[in-house]
Amino acid sequence: MKKRKVLILISSLSLLLISNLFIEKSSFNLVNAYADTISINEQEEPNNQAVLTNSSENSEEVIGRKLFEEYINKNRIAIAGMDLNDNLNNKEVETFAEYKINNIKIMEIKENRFIAKISYDIQFTDESNKWIAGNGKISDNNWIRNKSNYVEIIKENNIYKIDKIYT
Prior knowledge:
Order of helices and strands: HEHEEEEEEE
Helix content: 25-40%
Distance between the termini: 67 Å
Number of strands: 8
Largest sheet: 6 strands, antiparallel
Structural class: alpha+beta
Oligomer: single chain
Number of helices: 2
Radius of gyration: 24 Å
């Protein structure tokens, strides 16, 4: 009888452990799915990233401006109320109404890359607060003034593209 109780206890604990591992793995996958979604939207998927080909421009400022404007415009639309459990009810919303690039300063130039500090103002929409994070000062009518990002741009095979964006 004692052996039977020990066997039942061990079996119960094993089932509990296995089910707990399954639940943790499922949660981990949901978190990773959400993180992947964010990285696709924020950092751009390789086939959806800001790219400038065959640029006749030699100026890093002009290249940086064109790529950053393309990046901003590709991030105009976002998914509102990201709900991993109910993808059917997620809707697309505009994240900003207007923007203005104020200044571009080249911080560093290396062989096939350069870093530009881009200062800009952006007017976010009531439906999205995507642009609030980071820096800048929120002012009237949803404008964020003096927002800035460092944009690292690389050149590969005569194609310029954004490698990293940070504050």
